[in-house]
Amino acid sequence: MTFTTATAVHAEAPGRYEAEVVPGWDIAGNANGGYLLAMIARAVTDATGKPHPVTMTAHYLAPGRPGPVTVDVVPVRVGGRHATATATLSSSDGPLIVAIATTTDLTRASGPMLVDARPPALPPPEECVAMGGDADSAAPSFMGKVDLRLHPEDAGFLRGNASGKAQVRGWFRFREGEVLDPIGLLVAVDGFPPTIFNADLPVGWTPTVELTAHVRGIPVEGWLRCAFTTRFVTGGYLEEDGEVWDASGRLIAQSRQLALVPRPA
Amino acid sequence: MTFTTATAVHAEAPGRYEAEVVPGWDIAGNANGGYLLAMIARAVTDATGKPHPVTMTAHYLAPGRPGPVTVDVVPVRVGGRHATATATLSSSDGPLIVAIATTTDLTRASGPMLVDARPPALPPPEECVAMGGDADSAAPSFMGKVDLRLHPEDAGFLRGNASGKAQVRGWFRFREGEVLDPIGLLVAVDGFPPTIFNADLPVGWTPTVELTAHVRGIPVEGWLRCAFTTRFVTGGYLEEDGEVWDASGRLIAQSRQLALVPRPA
């Protein structure tokens, strides 16, 4: 089943969509946050009549499990270039995610250009460490959906040998060979192992409180180069900043999430 | 009138607050976006019963002008540690801002610490360039409310001499001598001149599409050190990343906004 099918939504009434959280997009039973966000993006772009989310923020309230969900979209303003809406993704147990998005048509994007950064330097994908491959036998089923190759310098945590730097860099694509659209980028920005796994801290998991993604362009076909870094772990929270570059060398997404840092039990 | 008074909200009904956009907090007639966000934060923290917004996102729909406004808050989930709500700030003309916030009590924040960054190096405030001072006679009235001192290297744009680097660093405090609370930080993250003023691009103004602020701590009394940078101007958008450090040397807020880059007429 392609990503497009696995995130499809069906309009049931104006502003109300039905969808199905498909098994396989989960980490230990909980659906990947970017996968759920992509479902919301499909509903919001449909409801606002503009094809691409240029900025989208999700607050995560409860984990999502396989099964039926609904997405309720409330358009707040629909203008010529942008539309803005709030959206709630709910299961029968209640709301799982509340989100806000501004949509546009990125094919019409133009303006002056200034780029003061470079894509992350990565060895070729075949020289990187494949998540879900031989070096990662305990990989979650989500890794059967995405093809994720970590920079060898950032993969030490898989063998209990964290690099000491809260950074994860690597390549990303869908396993089905499906071309990633701007909504697929929402999976890339939440699809890598937590940066904190490479820090020397007693932290086992970092549930996302909030994730904001800016979609800055439409990716060309091919591997995405991704880099995630954390600079501040303070007061029980951390931020994780992401950059996604496409195969033509353009930055196509930025992300930042705020995550909880629970202490080990 | 203090900032606290200028951002006060009054509960009119459950989830509905009245407020007044006070003259003086504007740039060319339009209220500062952080000032309006602070009003929303007061309503959301009141409605959720938790004192601090730990992450807050606003999508800006229309400019705010002095006069009465309402803030409608819809709590989505209220838990023990966090609460999440959406909120809409409206004038009689319609919605101006739609926002989403997660609130908490930051006085209870604790956890492991890792900081891989330093506050921006700034000359002392008296050696910086005061916005609204002698070097800046065309300053907006907003600069009568905040005391903002730019790093001399980043103040060249005031004399038509942009540094060439899309960066603005400086000190921030309220002019009234009022201690900045976590809600006051929302003004700091949107209170500086646009980074783009220091880039060599034909861009005159950059309206905010979306602003996300993470409040990472409660500031101690004293000047805030702030730094804003833009690395990507592409396709008619730019991001602006902010860091705010308090007088004790702790990072207390991070921000990122997505802004439009209109071409000059």
Features:
homodimer; 265 residues; mainly beta; Porin; 14-stranded antiparallel beta sheet; 17 strands; 41% strand; globular
Strand-residue proportion of chain A: 35-45%
Q: What's the average pLDDT of chain A? A: 94
Total domains of chain A? 2
Give the fraction of residues assigned to helices of chain A: under 10%
Span of the ends, CA to CA of chain A:
38 Å
Query: So what's the overall shape of chain A?
Result: globular
Provide the CATH topology of the largest domain in chain A.
Porin
Pair with the biggest interface: A-B, 57 and 57 residues
Report the total helices of chain A. 3
What's the CATH class label of the largest domain in chain A?
Mainly Beta
> Multimeric state of these chains?
homodimer
- What is the chain-wise order of helices and strands of chain A? HEEEEHEEEEEEEEHEEEEE
Name given to the CATH homologous superfamily of the largest domain in chain A: Acyl-CoA thioesterase, double hotdog domain
Q: Which regions of chain A are unreliable across 5 or more consecutive residues at pLDDT < 50?
A: none
Strand pairing plus helix content of chain A: what structural class?
Answer: mainly beta
Give me the CATH architecture of the largest domain in chain A, please: Beta Barrel
Number of strands of chain A: 17
Largest sheet of chain A: 14 strands, antiparallel
